[in-house]
Amino acid sequence: MRRGIIVLVFFAGLIPVAAFSPLGEILGEWFSPRHRSETRQFAETLRLVTDHFVQADSLNTQQLTGDAIEHMLRSLDENSEYLPRKEAEEFEIETEQRYGGIGVEVEWVDERVTIVSPFADSPGELVGLLPGDQIIRVNGKSVAGIRYREIIEKLRGPAGSKIAFSVFRPSSKTELDMEVIRQVIKVDSVRGVAMIEPGIGYIRITQFGTKTYGEFEVALESLEQQDLRGLILDLRNNPGGVLSAAVDIAGEFFDKGETVVYTKGKDSSHDKLYPARTPLRDVDYSIVVLVNGGSASASEIVAGALQDIHRARLVGTRTFGKGSVQTIFQYRSGDAMRLTTAMFFTPGGRVIHKNGIQPDVVVPLTDEELRKLMLQRRYLSALGKDGFTDKYGFEPIEDKQLEVALEVVRERSLL
After folding, report:
1. CA distance 253 to 248
2. Per-residue pLDDT of the chain (415 residues; tens, 9 = 90+)
């Protein structure tokens, strides 16, 4: 992920609470003779450049070193990056959601800022952004060749300020110009809690934050008090968020201590098990989880975990495939680097990253259907059918994925 939750909100996505480690202490212990030789070669290159380059007097050696490190890290994968001091400080702010933006999560894919999913009710969702859209211009200027962080900085800004940007939509091979007012994004993560028909409850989770687990518990208990025999958990377009919330929500349906998800890295210091922390719920009802290409990271952990233990069936389309762990290592200078150090695995040993989670029942939707459903979800109940149709120019459409989920729940629950 070169992940940012642009609210731009950059969540600590699946960075399981940041490890800022001093590189200076590591280097002396780690350098083998071969690595010392490579380091000398780099130092010699820098010396030769500063001694002999025709415009050496205008060189900034700190910038040269940073550029070299940045290029090295970017050659590893889409998630690793070099963070100069200012950007390292901003990264800490980003994880705390303290600034304004357009309200989407993004990933750096094929040298483009790509939308993972817009947040519910965010400016990005309201203007019609869809998973897979690629940012190509900001305020009329191309972002081709610009560093990822610089693009993010252009998208961010004070709440209430206006921003224009253009996206390329690969599914339809079209370019779209958009304009929004930035907002500070505050999203209630658990929504739509209801018994949608006798015996079948519905809970939608829009993201995983620090309060999501508590909200989910309250919602689930309210449904269980109403003769719950089937549950639909909607994780569509949920870009993820706080790892512990995902573990705790999935863990409600695991035996206490049973592994919900685990990580494996190059060395054992990055290997970790995340067990269920509460006793298994003393209930017996069927569960269907709705997922799509906008379901990422923490959403994939919940969906994959419940699928692996056969506690739930998944309906929709393959999830995004974002399941790597980044660790922040800080230099003594104040600069830092973010390095991919481990991968997440479902309880059954499946790699989430780049693979995603395949649903048990595939129900595809077109971009147009997805756009209409997003509008319906936000405005239909408030405007009513006639008002909604007048305002948006189409009659409400059937949510085919939800209808199939209902069929699966009914069948499994014998309703």
Report:
1. 9
2. 333 333 332 333 344 433 444 445 445 545 566 677 888 888 899 899 999 999 888 888 888 888 888 889 888 988 888 888 777 666 655 444 445 789 887 878 778 899 887 887 789 988 999 888 999 999 999 999 888 878 888 898 888 999 999 999 988 899 999 999 998 866 668 989 999 999 999 999 998 888 899 999 999 999 999 999 999 999 999 988 889 999 999 999 999 999 999 999 988 888 999 999 999 988 889 999 999 999 999 999 999 999 999 999 999 999 999 998 888 888 888 888 888 899 999 999 999 999 999 999 999 999 899 889 988 887 787 778 998 899 889 999 999 999 999 999 998 865 5
Maximum separation of any 2 CA atoms in the chain, in Å? 81
Are 337 and 149 spatial neighbours (Cβ–Cβ below 8 Å)? no
- For the chain, give the number of residues: 415
Tokens describing residue 39 = 């380091």
Q: Which of 322, 324, 372, 413 is catalytic?
A: 322
CB neighbours of residue 310 within 10 Å: 7
Q: Which of 308, 324, 335, 399 is catalytic?
A: 308
Catalytic residue, chosen from 117, 122, 286, 297, is 297
Q: What is the CATH number of domain 190-325+333-410?
A: 3.90.226.10
DSSP state of 57: G
Secondary structure of 269-329 as H, E, C letters = HHCEEEECCCCCCCCCCEEEEEECCCCCCHHHHHHHHHHHCCCEEEEECCCCCCCEEEEEE
Q: Is 322 a catalytic residue?
A: yes
> Is 206 within 8 Å of 238 (Cβ atoms)?
yes
**Catalytic site residue 284?**
no
